[in-house]
Amino acid sequence: MTSFTQIAPLLEGQAIEVPSWAYGNSGTRFKVFGSPGTPRTVEEKVADAATVHRFTGLAPAVSLHIPWDLVDDYTALRAYAGELGVSIGTINSNTFQDDDYKLGALTHVDRKVRQKAIDHHFECIDVMNATGSRDLKIWLAEGSNYPGQGDIRGRQDRLAQSLQTIYARLSDDQRLVLEYKFFEPAFYHTDVPDWGTSYTQVAALGDRAMVCLDTGHHAPGTNVEFIVAQLLRLGKLGSFDFNSRFYADDDLIVGAADPFQLFRIIFEVIRGGGYAPSNPDSEVAFMLDQCHNIEDKIPGQIRSVLNVQEMTARALLVDRDALTAAQESGDVLGANGIFMDAFYTDVRPDLAAWRETRGLPADPMRAYAESGYQQQIEADRVGGTQAGWN
Amino acid sequence: MTSFTQIAPLLEGQAIEVPSWAYGNSGTRFKVFGSPGTPRTVEEKVADAATVHRFTGLAPAVSLHIPWDLVDDYTALRAYAGELGVSIGTINSNTFQDDDYKLGALTHVDRKVRQKAIDHHFECIDVMNATGSRDLKIWLAEGSNYPGQGDIRGRQDRLAQSLQTIYARLSDDQRLVLEYKFFEPAFYHTDVPDWGTSYTQVAALGDRAMVCLDTGHHAPGTNVEFIVAQLLRLGKLGSFDFNSRFYADDDLIVGAADPFQLFRIIFEVIRGGGYAPSNPDSEVAFMLDQCHNIEDKIPGQIRSVLNVQEMTARALLVDRDALTAAQESGDVLGANGIFMDAFYTDVRPDLAAWRETRGLPADPMRAYAESGYQQQIEADRVGGTQAGWN
Amino acid sequence: MTSFTQIAPLLEGQAIEVPSWAYGNSGTRFKVFGSPGTPRTVEEKVADAATVHRFTGLAPAVSLHIPWDLVDDYTALRAYAGELGVSIGTINSNTFQDDDYKLGALTHVDRKVRQKAIDHHFECIDVMNATGSRDLKIWLAEGSNYPGQGDIRGRQDRLAQSLQTIYARLSDDQRLVLEYKFFEPAFYHTDVPDWGTSYTQVAALGDRAMVCLDTGHHAPGTNVEFIVAQLLRLGKLGSFDFNSRFYADDDLIVGAADPFQLFRIIFEVIRGGGYAPSNPDSEVAFMLDQCHNIEDKIPGQIRSVLNVQEMTARALLVDRDALTAAQESGDVLGANGIFMDAFYTDVRPDLAAWRETRGLPADPMRAYAESGYQQQIEADRVGGTQAGWN
Amino acid sequence: MTSFTQIAPLLEGQAIEVPSWAYGNSGTRFKVFGSPGTPRTVEEKVADAATVHRFTGLAPAVSLHIPWDLVDDYTALRAYAGELGVSIGTINSNTFQDDDYKLGALTHVDRKVRQKAIDHHFECIDVMNATGSRDLKIWLAEGSNYPGQGDIRGRQDRLAQSLQTIYARLSDDQRLVLEYKFFEPAFYHTDVPDWGTSYTQVAALGDRAMVCLDTGHHAPGTNVEFIVAQLLRLGKLGSFDFNSRFYADDDLIVGAADPFQLFRIIFEVIRGGGYAPSNPDSEVAFMLDQCHNIEDKIPGQIRSVLNVQEMTARALLVDRDALTAAQESGDVLGANGIFMDAFYTDVRPDLAAWRETRGLPADPMRAYAESGYQQQIEADRVGGTQAGWN
């Protein structure tokens, strides 16, 4: 097997965007539980995100969600983030929390509603221009709840038109990434339910339109790493929203539900040239999109970026030459054995030592717990309205 | 095939409880859309429920949810409902919206939290005593999100103890019905995830403890009518929460997603003696539990009770003697054909005529639309706080 | 609602290809049950297929599977079919029953194995040339059972090359249709697991390469009618393999498991211009692909084509203008009601009468049962080897 | 964390029954691939099973399947196995490969068919008496394919009667274990589809009737470790059929699809007292039930028992005291972290060393490959009929 020493250089520069909303409260339709220390402002969210980066070295950017992260001065926000050592990453639009969007936004039958949704994306692009963000991410929470309620195909055509208009507004160094999701909040049909739909829509737009793959947005049993491989092959994998799930879009900590799946996904990313440290041409963005409903949010994020890092190390350990040889000789058990050998290797001690050589804590979870940051924010952040999905 | 005339008497007395919360606002974790005319008080919810009954003759009871339906004087509420022609049905408890219940209620490791949850059920029993309700329904929204977070088995033991205490408080003419659910709001393990768990828990309690079957609370592909047949065989089917789903617990209008499944379920209810009009000994309660997130609420409920009635009529039309003969002769296509014949029969014209003979509108949906009730409540219900899940 | 009289002309010319293998024995991995009267030869299969057409007027073509339907003289077979009133339809290739294909065929790492599989398709094209078939259907039963066993992406590239070679061999009036399937017989990854993969592969080939949609080949919960609408929108829906399922690829009689789903699918076919009687430009082929493991095969096929016809009639009954009006006004319940009204209409009496006006039996199932055909073949087909999947 | 030294004693005596049929050919409904060296006789299967034990020390018993393993003299077979160092384990009945059982066996409407199936179980008990087997395992491959085909509830009643008769035939030291399965080979309803049904059926029989849990026989998303915990709590977990799956009943190598799930399952077994080395009172049988369709069979089985052993070691490493403390303090991330720490620990080097101290090869896979056994059986086993599912 490849040794840790061999792969260590490829761990340099791994970057995972953390989402601002992960630091605010989230929950289910039944209840949102609050917790002490939750940010009240965008700046406090950015500060928490920067804290994750400080303890891990893995999270140099924070993605924003508009309008949850509306501020008056994005240039100032960008500067503030920079002072804390992080940059502003992907800008996420929101077309699911306005009463006008009850039956659709970019797909709505009413031209005025569509234009309103398009205008919202124009605002997002303005934010991008101010923050220096590369990616506009569109998750389309649109669909219908009852058969016959909408014209499935007409909606698809309107979506294409709306996206075209938005795409045309981007500058040459900006990208549009279109996320797909199997279901929720619509329960009969969803307008972008699968990678095929996202792919065909972005392929019609142009080179700077890409697919965003949220690892929790698939039907039960879906082979997600296959989709990763396919999208990389087609040159259309734009970004990841990492999280994990046992059932539906559970939005649990990445790697928590099925660590082996995360390993397989990252292996295909590396194999397909989507991992920047081993392929400098890669533009695939690694992001988290999770809900810390019941666990502490900052350590939840630290745990998550560490999970991605640990599984990346394991995936890099796969002896690719030996694997190829076994595959080509039809040695089913041998090939699987080489693959599993890397997965079962405990990379944590080596990673701890490697972190220390780079001025990072060997155990970021423990270091955070002992740092006093949590106690500080719990003491400081009294009054005001805790951030959430609104 | 059996004729409509033959089955018409068996449609007499069909009763479906409607839930008070169906008239308030509901939504997903992303957004709750409001709509004009939504009730602000328990009394307004009861009035809407009574309206459904007035137009359909199918919904003589309304189930309440505590604390969403807290009032000072349940005797007065009971009298008010009676004046409107309906009674108070099942009382639903709530152990998922208090901060103390974040990690469990009846299963919590902390005895004080468990006692608080038990006390809440005692309050519900007090309400039952005042309203004359027979059933205390417990949906246990408890579980864990991460492997290792809780002691799965210890929680099961504590649940048994808590239920025992609650059950002991019931009077002899009251029942405890325990609902199961596959997942949500917990995303790793749920404490009562399947009928087997609900059954073994209530079987340990006694004769007046039963299972509540929510038709949307199963894993993908589950044969729900099999569970209906099994629970009736075991004498433990207490009640239904009807709704429909394409994916998870979508809570769509009953019969909307898969009308044929509803037909099969009701067929097994009738065959197993769980349909009161054809088996006076039956104590199985038919209830709705749905979310009208985007559609109008009162017509949504009218549509729902009509769907149950129409599918009941179809299920009654099955020529049971011919079916048995085909089954016993091993005639696969013949038996299936007899079954499908009833399903494909359009009972709507006969039902319309039958309704009119009983002083009900032939087309309750149209009659409601033309009645002016909706316009009236939209005009009247201005100000105040629209009811929802809180 | 639209009346039956209005839609009757659109029922003219509906054509459903029946598969030769439906008349042979099939089963599960556990057991294949035989039954009296099962065909021993290709000719007997064609005769049974012609019988289905004679009783229904719906099945003017029979699709073949190579090598299960190998004969020396396809010109003679074509003539024989013609005498019986049917034509030879789609030719299906088989790359899953040769020992060489254990680890792949068109995707195999070994160039010799790939060439063997390509050559098999050349033979199929020869058959097409002799039979006058338009479509070469490729179901790729390829994949892997264990992570690491194969190079997922390399296989995709080799598949593209193999398909290119096959496609180049087709004449200008022939088409290649590529079927996708979620899983089975491979249990970890499948090389063409979803419509997106099939679409991107055929889009790379050219205009005469299309997607084949088998209604049973999706993940649990997949909205199949959405895929139908999308593929029609993209101009890439080549053909259907109809059947139904409760769980996986159960291959039950079409419409048996979820009649409402079949209704929704056919509605989208019509709406999208894929139904030839209402859109003469349509080239979408309707086929069955089912397994009659325990039921009688010929009546199983009769039941199936009737189910498609009945559901087509219902889908045609949808009042499209009223539906559009309701959709555009945002009337969720109204639009759904218009849609359901057509589904719940019992078209069987009108269809029976319509059949009689065309010289067909009003009740094809009964007419077949009373015809003596089944008794005849049971008496005649003694000795020899019953046809099956080999 | 607990150290390997502490847990090593608990690895002593771990025993996993291997199934005789794993050494024969298996496949899908599409194709069964053969391979050189496949056993032709029961004795050769037992020899292969004994080989697995010789290289691993983990597989001291082999389970038989009647009639696949029919021999004239079971006493001789028992002696032969003993000479090779293994015993005969569970006896599996088969009621799915006789034409009479097409529509049912223990549930059939025809009393004669039921009696035939009961008599078959009596024969299996005779075999048990001769082989000294403790357990009669019944997997009921019964159900129906079409709604209406059978009387779901009547079948359940007949099943209860049939099981009663079989159970009464057992001696006091024998057990009946009833396996459940979500679907296949029946595709509409299955007579024992879930643990609840198996539990209620065996609970009605008596103390020596238990549930068999096949890890691949559940609906998508099912929390299998919850069922393990529940059955142990109810005192009704009789045995495991281990294997793994991505989709349906894929019957892949245990631990291959989701190693973390295997870890969670074994953790609950240990926690619930079902692991004999740490609870001498436990009578839970660990068995494999897998299909090596494309991989080599003997190394496939070696890999499997090693996977169970490795995951058992990891599960034993969980620091139960620390876990309980974290759970009781509501530390979600802490409790999960303790749990994951054990899972991520690489126990393989310690296990290799431990094996050597016990006279076993450090790397059983490599030792087998280098032993020449495979070459020997490939050379020896020429001619005859390779064993399979018949």
What would you note in describing this structure?
Chains A, B, C, D: It comes from Solicola gregarius. The structure is a homotetramer of 390-residue chains. The first copy, chain A, is an alpha/beta fold and 390 residues long. Chain A has one domain (4-380): Divalent-metal-dependent TIM barrel enzymes (TIM Barrel, Alpha-Beta Barrel), CATH 3.20.20. The first copy, chain A, contains 14 helices and ten strands. In chain A, the strands form two sheets. Chain A has an eight-stranded parallel beta sheet. In chain A, strands 5-7 form a two-stranded antiparallel ribbon. In chain A, α2 (42-56) runs parallel beside α9 (297-317), α7 (224-233) packs parallel to α8 (259-271) and α9 packs antiparallel against α13 (364-371). The longest helix of chain A has 21 residues, at 111-131. The radius of gyration of chain A is 21 Å and the shape is globular. Chain A starts with a helix and ends in a 10-residue tail after the last helix.
Radius of gyration of chain A: 21 Å
Q: Which chains have the largest interface?
A: A-C, 59 and 60 residues
The total of beta strands of chain A comes to 10
In N-to-C order, the SSE pattern of chain A is HEHEHEHEEHEEHEHEHEHHHHHH
Structural class of chain A: alpha/beta
